[in-house]
Amino acid sequence: MKGISPLLAAVLLIAITVALATLIMGWMSTITRTSQVKVENKTIQAIDCSAGGISIKEVYITAGATTASANVVVSNTGQTDDLQITTAQLLNITGSNFTATNVPITDFDKGDIETLTFSGMGIASCPSDFSKVIVTTNCGGVSDTFDTTPKCT
Predict the structure, then answer these.
(1) What is the pTM of this model?
(2) Percent of the chain topping pLDDT 90
(3) pLDDT range class, residue 85, cuts 50, 70, 90
C-alpha cells in the first residue's frame, strides 16, 4: 500500500489550517463588530441620559366619580434632547392606577413642556382622593413623582 507523500500531506495540512483560520477570523470579526455597535449605542444612550432630568410642574384635577380628569404639566429640566416619556401613571388613594392617554411622547427636548392627559379616573373628591403621579422616561433613573396637593378645578 502506498500513501501520499510527506510533502503533499504537509501542503494539505497547511491549506486546511489556513482555510479554517480564515473562516474563524471572519466569524470573530462579525461578532466583534456587532458587539462594538451594541456597546457604542448603549454608551451614547448612557451619556445622553446622564444629563437627563424631568420635573412635574403641576397637576390639575377635575373631580368626578367616574368622569374625573387630570392634566399633568411636565418639563424637561435636563440637558438631553430626544428624551421620551414612556409612562405616566396617576394613583388615587385606593391604589387604582390610571394611565395618561397621550403617552408615549417622543422628541421631548430640553426646555420643552408637555401636558399629559388622564380621563375616566376614580377621583370623586379633590384633593382628598388623589395619591400621586409618576412619570418615567426611556432613561433609567430619569423620572419624577408628584405626591403633594394638586390644584382642583
Answers:
(1) 0.72
(2) 59
(3) very high
Label residues 113-130 b or e (16+ Cβ within 10 Å = b).
ebebebeebebeebeebb
Q: Where are the alpha helices (DSSP H) in the chain?
A: 6-50
Task: Please tell me the predicted confidence (pLDDT) of residue 118.
Answer: 94
Of 144, 150, 146, 153, the residue nearest 129 (C-alpha) = 150
Cα(148)–Cα(140) distance, integer angstroms: 23
E strands within 13-150?
A: 54-62, 64-76, 83-92, 97-99, 105-108, 113-123, 130-137, 143-146
Torsions phi, psi of 134, nearest 5?
-125, 125
Phi then psi for 11, rounded to 5 degrees? -65, -45
| C-alpha span between 7 and 144 (Å, rounded) | 75
Write the single-letter amino acid at 49: C
Nearest partner of 148 among 125, 131, 134, judged by Cα: 131
Per the structure block, which three cell numbers stand in for 59? 397637576
- Give the position of cell 384635577: 61
Distance CA 127, CA 121 (A): 13
